[in-house]
Amino acid sequence: MGTSFVDALTAARRPVIMELKPRSADGEDLFRGRPVSELVARFEAAGAPCLSVVTGRWFGGTTDLLAEVTRCTELPVLQKDFITNTGQLRVARDLGASAVLLTAALLPRVALARLAERALALGLTPFIEVTDVVEIEGLPSCEGSVVAVNNKDIKARERGAADVDRSLRLLPAVRGTGTPCPVSASGIDDPKVAARLLSAGYAGLLVGTHLLRADRLDSWCEELAASHPVSSAARPAG
Ligand SMILES: O=P(O)(O)OC[C@@H](O)[C@@H](O)c1c[nH]c2ccccc12
């Protein structure tokens, strides 16, 4: 098995999980006819340590898309879908995913804990998404999991505006879960905002829509690098 999702993210100079999502929640076509292999190559060239693939129907995703992405990259891949049963975990693993989304807003506590345990047993990293303190307090211990604050609301189908301050407010509580990898996800468009989240202490960011819309990924990445000098922990040795 390749590098684990958490290891790849925490070792990265630019810890941005870049997401392939066919459509925005409003129905905007984000792939614009570009082949999946081209989108993956673009994210790899921009230095993504991990990729995310949305397989949820709301966003035009399918499990075929996940299979296609894992066929054309060695990077660890997160499957973003509304996972509710262990059968879906096995499918994720068989299609080559390294991590799976578990959404605290949609899963009862006991089910979430059971799915996280099962995912770990299958060699998958639970990527647990939260939106408030109550959800965070209900989490199982998260030493082997990513805990991600979603800046948008999945119950509103991700349609509203993003509240990036939510990530800043919730970071101490997220750290309290024991996760080695706090992540901020959704609505991160401006590289200066991305830099602010990393400087605040986030170990990773998840960015989809903006990077799929952007004509130039290198300028976004350069702006992020300029606003957020790489930490010594993430600098390659030698
Ligand atoms: O495209 P954005 O705003 O950069 O957001 C990415 C990601 O966080 C978003 O696609 C997402 C967050 N939670 C989800 C659950 C299922 C599918 C997709 C998602």
From TrEMBL:
Keywords: Amino-acid biosynthesis, Aromatic amino acid biosynthesis, Decarboxylase, Lyase, Tryptophan biosynthesis. It comes from the Bacteria. Residues 4-221 form the Indole-3-glycerol phosphate synthase domain. GO terms for molecular function: indole-3-glycerol-phosphate synthase activity; phosphoribosylanthranilate isomerase activity. The keyword Nucleotide-binding does not apply. Pathway: Amino-acid biosynthesis; L-tryptophan biosynthesis; L-tryptophan from chorismate: step 4/5. This is indole-3-glycerol-phosphate synthase. It comes from Streptomyces alkaliphilus.
